[in-house]
User: What shape does this take?
Amino acid sequence: MICRWVFIAEGRLKGRDLVSIKDLTREDFEQIFHIAEKMKKEGYSKNLKDKIIGLLFYEPSTRTRLSFDAAARLLGAETIWFAGVEGTSVMKGETLKDTIETVANYVDLIVLRHPCDGAARWAADVTTNRMKRGHKKVPVINAGDGKNEHPTQTILDLFTIKERKGRIDGLCIAIIGDLKYGRTVHSLIYALSLYDCDIILVAPEALQIPEHIEEFMKRKNMRYEKRSKLEEIISIADILYVTRIQKERFPDENEYNKVKGIFRLNKELLSKAKSDACIMHPLPRVDEISTDVDSDYRACYFEQAANGIPIRAAIMSLILGMI
Ligand code: CP
Assistant: This one.
């Protein structure tokens, strides 16, 4: 027992940024899962007392912001935050760099959601350069950057799969919906490269995964196929990971109108799914899963949302080296 906690205390995440899921290993995931499971079972200790977490959300959020906030409070930390740039000096033209330079003076950890791809990496570089000037390093957690990545969502997704199925290896995982603009999907695909899974990418041609991600899958020898119809694959998938069409990321609303409502998982279609399938969704949903699915025992999207707290509590504790 002592050895395990020494291992955890020397965890690889201490002091690091969490910008891309590609920066993590299976061992990192296992360590986070282990702590999250323990927190879920045994409760939260005040190990982040005297810490201040900055939640900088330039884009709308319900789950990510509130679960980071709740997790921080359960661990005894204080949070300072903005939700939307209204009321901040971003409205006066302040750059992301200057905001990060400033907020890094006030907090121990920054959680950033931003509409631009790469914003979290940029913010992490700003706090690293600040450290080189003699300040303490303030780690940055990516809470979603544009259409790029959403790594903490993926960690809680994998945790939920493990809770439900007892494993991730050997599963057939169908990822359905907006694979082009969906950042949760991108991080999930990167993470699944560390596991032995069969992946089915279900999307209309216009919303299939970006070329650079398909290239990544090929390089990693991932087993995948592309399909356009949910009906064709519903009976073979162990995991049906459904996503919202990301209306806000389409450069042209006409293009959005061509694909909106293209998938709708309802109770009738679900009758063709495996009896032990898991229906997942990062949420928010619009109409891609009908509410008559919510009461089905295979629906686990609200479990995913609930797991945001222990997973984010574990991540913050590890990064701040307080466990
Ligand atoms: N899954 C997710 O990122 O949800 P929010 O946009 O509500 O944070």
In short: The chain has two domains: 21-149+308-319, 151-306.
